[in-house]
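Hmm, what's this shape?
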Amino acid sequence: MEHGESITSLVIVVIAAFLTPILLHRFRLKMIPVVVAEIIIGLIIGETGFKLVEESSWLETLSTLGFIFLMFLSGLEIDFSLFSRKKRGKQTENKMPNPVKLATLIFVAILILSFGLSYLFVLLGFIDNVFLMTLIISTISLGVVVPTLKEAQAMQTTIGQTILLIAVIADLATMILLAVFVSFYGDSSGNMWLLLILFGVGVLLYFVGKYFRNQSFLEAMSKGTIQIGTRAVFTLIIFLVALSETVGAENILGAFLAGALVSLLAPNQDLVQKLDSFGYGFLIPIFFVMVGVELDLWALFEEPKVLILIPLLFLALLVSKVIPVAILKKWYDTKTVVAASMLLTSTLSLVIAAATIGERLGVITSEMNGALVLVAVLSCIITPPFFKKYFVNQEEVEHSDSIAFIGINQATIPVVRELNPDEFEVHLFHTRQDKIEDKHTRSIFDINQLDNYDIATLKNAGVFDHDIVVVSTGEEEKNEEIATYAKNNDVGRVIARIETPVIEKRLQEIGVDVFSVLLSSKTLLKALIEAPNVVNIFTQQESALYEILMNNTQYEGILLREFPFTGDVIMVRIFRGKDSIVPHGDTELRVGDRLIVTGSQEYVGDLQRLLEYV
């Protein structure tokens, strides 16, 4: 009989999770995040509503796995490249400081202010533990911030990147501080040093993963029934979760660390999509529905103290973000700053984690747990719509890439003259002793004259602060030296002129793009002889290749065979992150995709307007 009851409850929860996004779409409730809607549905079918769901070992297990997988995906969402991005080459009078330093400063201010507010809650008798309340007030939901920024087309803007960095740092710091909290107040209190074992193993696994990541045999094992990448990820999650519990930390810390490790290893986007599909398609919805199921709002209303706590805590969440984020007023208008602080007020998964752990450790009551979860849900319902309504993208409209040319000669001059100034901000670097014969180039572009091409000289000239560096001096060895240094110092793209195959191979192995004047000429002549029609694609305007950035969220996830565009355009290739995808009918479009297409200029222009602008 018990078995039947548990299956029945599982079926009800799964059906509820399935119907939630359909109902949101049907009633056009786009302002409510799906995870919040799942909690609300849980309230309706659970203790607060019709009490259709009973206790079940099935649901308990799947809900725990959903929570673990949610923490894993939270770690996976962290883009560590944000911490190493260079400043753009273009300077402004009122330039912003380093975004990482600015985001860190803002989060430290949030943490300090959260501590002060938490101390007030302790003095008022709402809670006894100031450390736990500090964590709860200072948390920011990365899972809410990321999709909201994407929907507002703000992800690639400076303010969007700053908001994202603050959320990332908050996610990392509060998760680590939560582990420290458990080490002090848990059953294994006093063994905080054991956390070093967990992080040490994490570092070791990172280097192991980095070594095996590019092994050729793994590519063959990543398809079919083997799916070695997926197996490796789940093995990593389970191993670190088990190790986390062994050293006295929470299992979610191990899961979060596993996600961060996978993110550091720059996983294949197809693998990330599979993990997202599995997590947000099955396990995570069960967890959020069960959060609502177990939340008894009627019990909260019977406790006057808890009822008073709810608006006060929401106010504390707002104050803790609005005041520190006000520093951005130096660079942005008031409406933008307020909208940013409102979005950073959203908090969910880590509050649920902290509240659950606090109740289990006896630091807070079940009613307090429910109040904290309810405030987290309210923050996710109220703040994202506010951000979307009041955020106006007044960013620097020019999204031009800053490109530095080292060496001005017959190989680079024609390219420099042809580059679209609206798309590329060109900076030329040349030695004083080398004369530039092209007077037209010399008159149009401001050329930075250098004494030599030594690394120190180039560094002082700010060459490596640009998005793209093209190295084309007259010496191959010097080109290799400069290109290697640029790549090792986080320049986004490095292109070098190399004629020797051995040097070419060395540079390609570290991710440097290589071009050869001799090889280009030879290849073009051979192609003209063997396949002239192929060459026409590159040389004739009507059949040229074009690159289009997919930036319209309306077509996010749509299959190519269902794409409503019938113009004379053929999609040749899709670049997604580091992956190159051959498009077919079942290929999904994703925001951020770079589409390589061919066709008439008229239809390519129509497609560009359709995809790049909302």
Q: What stands out?
A: The first helix runs from residue 2 to 26. The longest strand covers residues 424-431. Residues 87-93, 395-399 have pLDDT under 50 and may be disordered.
